[in-house]
C-alpha cells in the first residue's frame, strides 16, 4: 500500500519513480494553507486540519470531482511526498485515499466520492 512521506520535490525524484511530490508548486498542491486567515473562524489562523478538510471538501464539489478523478488515476499505486510533518494532517493523506482506497477496499469507480469522507487523519 502506498504511503505518505516527508520531503521535497528533489526527495521524490531521488527516491524512485514510484514517488510523486504533491506539495506546494505541484499540480496536486493544497491551495489552503495552515496559518492563513480562517474562513470559518474570523480573526484566527487556519489549522492544518481545517486546510485538509477544505481541500477534501473542494474535491467533493462539482468541479473538484473532475480533478479528484484525474488525481486518483495519476496517483494510484504511488508513494506521495509532501513537506508537511508526518504527525500533522496533510492533504497527501486525502490524495492517498483518493487514489488507493474505497469503503470496501477496492478501487473507486468514477464519480464516487466516499474516499473523501473522514480525511483529516
Spatial strand arrangement across the major sheet: 1-3-2
End-to-end C-alpha gap: 16 Å
Oligomer: single chain
Low-confidence stretches: 103-115
**How much is the average pLDDT?**
85
Which structural class do the helices and strands define?
mainly alpha
Global morphology: globular
Based on DSSP secondary structure assignment, what is the total number of beta strands? 3
Total number of domains: 1
Largest sheet: 3 strands, parallel
InterPro entries: DUF4326
Region (Disordered): 101-121
Domain DUF4326: 15-96
Keywords: Plasmid
Fold and architecture overview:
Residues 103-115 have low confidence and may be disordered. 35% of the residues lie in helices and 8% in strands. It has a three-stranded parallel sheet with strand order 1-3-2. The longest helix is centred in the middle third of the chain and has 13 residues, at 48-60. The chain has one domain. It is mainly α. Helix 2 crosses helix 3 (64-75) and helix 3 crosses helix 4. It holds the Pfam family DUF4326. Residues 15-96 form the DUF4326 domain. This is DUF4326 domain-containing protein. Residues 101-121 are annotated as: Disordered.
Amino acid at each position: 500500500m502506498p504511503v505518505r512521506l516527508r520531503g521535497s520535490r528533489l526527495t521524490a525524484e531521488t527516491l524512485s519513480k514510484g514517488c510523486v511530490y504533491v506539495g506546494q508548486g505541484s499540480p496536486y498542491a493544497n491551495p489552503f494553507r495552515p496559518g492563513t486567515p480562517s474562513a470559518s473562524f474570523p480573526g484566527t489562523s487556519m489549522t492544518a486540519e481545517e486546510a485538509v478538510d477544505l481541500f477534501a471538501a473542494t474535491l467533493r464539489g462539482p468541479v473538484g470531482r473532475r480533478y479528484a478523478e484525474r488525481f486518483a488515476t495519476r496517483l494510484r499505486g504511488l508513494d506521495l511526498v509532501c513537506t508537511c510533518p508526518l504527525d500533522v494532517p496533510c492533504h497527501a493523506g486525502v490524495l492517498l485515499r483518493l487514489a488507493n482506497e474505497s469503503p470496501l477496499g477496492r478501487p473507486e469507480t468514477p464519480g464516487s466520492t466516499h474516499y473523501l469522507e473522514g480525511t483529516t487523519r
